[in-house]
Amino acid sequence: MIDHIAGAEVVVCSPTRNYVTLKITTADGVVGYGDATLNGRELAVASYLRDHVAPLLIGRDASRIEDTWQLLYRGAYWRRGPVTMAAIGAVDVALWDIKGKTLGQPVYQLLGGAVRDRVLTYTHAMGWELPALLDAVDALRERGFRAVRAQSGIPGLDTVYGVHRDCSGYEPAARSTAAPEEVWDSSAYLRHVPGLLAEVRRHVGEGLELLHDTHHRLTPQQAARFAAAVEAVDLFWLEDVTPAENQDALRLVRGHSTTPLAIGEVFNSIWDCHRLIEHQLIDFVRAAVSHAGGISHMRKIHALADVHQVRGAPHGPSDVSPITLGASLHVGLATPNFAIQEYMGYDPLVGDVFPGAWSFDDGYLHPGDAPGIGVALNEELAAKYPYEPAYLPVARQRDGSITDW
Ligand code: CS2
Ligand code: MG
């Protein structure tokens, strides 16, 4: 028997970076956690949850996950958007966590049970110059990764998002009260990166899946040219090759290349991607559980994608919390058309604040068999790391105008 909701609290903490966590408690003391982190806009979701959602939850039957989703989505009148959908996603995941804990089952069992034994994952290799990048790829291979996203520096640019000259890992948002600014040059990128990726393929041979992320920065024509230029690299996917709003752009890309395309880390609902899926303009849909309305809504996105042989491959950067990674792995284990899970990895402190049952082995992840999602929040430790303003960088072209992200 699942009891009614007695409490809904929001915890904002910053163990190396900011995370927003929703904690729902039932009258009989079962606790469910959901991740509501929206990188660089964290407090907007925290307020949405605290001020507008929590009061609606108190007294509701915690077992009615879909009905609660419908209430928050349809009932608000104002639909979609990253803030709304991240808030709904956190409630949804927390309620699945409660259902699993009450029934004594990991969530993947409640989604129909495992359709695979483990979930393939990929992580990021960065190197400013080719030798550093190859070293990074080799090191990840040694750790067991079977799929690696390769990003490099660009001659003539001082900085490139996600790639440090000193080969250290990257933090998607720098702690500061204003967004740091970078210069971007698509022509330099187009001249340099196809050749570099060809070198990476030559180095690794056939046994490793390679991915590459263009971070929405190319025009349709540039994207088509780039996708054709990297055809022989045999990428597992080319990610975010154009901004996600201009979806017809992908027809041009498709017309010039069979390089697989992945888009979706900025999507927050099925309405952002249904045309891309129905017209088969993408091969992988990358919406994250936390940003796209939770497990319930991701199930619908993946079900539609399955009809069109598009596969799920959720966003998994360090700016979604381990609760989202855990939730995503339950979905991955139980969803036939799930391809791969991004796993950027976390600072060990983040692992202490969010102790989890999921594990990495041999290039694959598994959510574990703890009841519910299997990721908790250590509130005492979290309280030691209060929110600190942090923002993603802004990219400008050489003439000073802001470019697409
Ligand atoms: C990236 C992210 O993981 C990815 O594929 O695109 O680093 C992304 O830029 C950040 O999550 C934005 O918050
Ligand atoms: Mg990306």
Description:
The chain is built from 13 helices and 17 strands. The chain folds into 2 domains: 5-105, Enolase-like, N-terminal domain (Enolase-like, domain 1, 2-Layer Sandwich); 110-370, TIM Barrel. Helix 2 (65-74) packs antiparallel against helix 3, helix 3 crosses helix 10 (294-307) and helix 5 (130-142) crosses helix 6. The mean pLDDT is 96. The N and C termini lie far apart (47 Å). Strands 4, 5, 8, 9, 10, 11, 12, 13, 14 and 15 form a 10-stranded mixed beta sheet that branches. A 3-stranded antiparallel beta sheet has the order 1-2-3. The chain is 36% helix and 17% strand. Helix 10 (294-307) links the parallel strand 11 and strand 12 (311-312). The protein has 405 residues and is of the alpha/beta class. The chain binds D-mannonic acid and magnesium ion (MG).
Proportion of helical residues: 25-40%
Summed up, the domain count is 2
CATH architecture term of the largest domain: Alpha-Beta Barrel
- Could you name the CATH homologous superfamily of the largest domain? Enolase-like C-terminal domain
The CATH first-level class of the largest domain comes to Alpha Beta
Using the CA coordinates, give the radius of gyration: 21 Å
Q: Name the assembly state.
A: single chain
Instruction: Classify the secondary structure makeup into a structural class.
Output: alpha/beta
Summed up, the helix count is: 13
Mean pLDDT: 96
Distance between the termini: 47 Å
Q: Which small-molecule species are bound to the chains here?
A: D-mannonic acid, magnesium ion
**Global outline:** globular
Strand content: 15-25%
What's the total count of β strands? 17
CATH topology descriptor of the largest domain: TIM Barrel
Q: What's the order of the H and E elements?
A: EEEHHHHEHEEEHEHEHEHEHEHEHEEHEE
